[in-house]
Amino acid sequence: MGSQTDLDHESGRKFRMLQPSQWTDYFLYFTVDEFELDVLASELEAIKPNVRDMLMFSYHAGGHDSTKRKIHLIYLMISLGIAYHFENEIEKTLAHA
Hints:
The chain has helices at 2-11, 34-60, 64-80, 87-95. It is an all-alpha fold. It has a domain at 48-97. The longest helix has 27 residues, at 34-60. The protein contains four helices and no strands.
């Protein structure tokens, strides 16, 4: 019943209506060029070995600066949305960091 009182407390909140977005539905609809996606996929496949080498080189190097570089590289990979391609290498690197 404690959760019921929490829900009652939360339902008493007053919400302010937000302004309409200036973007409206501009980003909801766009055309996808299959050829462009194929080019991007092939470019990604081409750079995978380079990125893997960069990560494994950082893995074998020692020192404080190397650990910072590893974390930064992994952060960039996550930010770019490509980290899932290198999950095993990232796990090995973090296990030895």
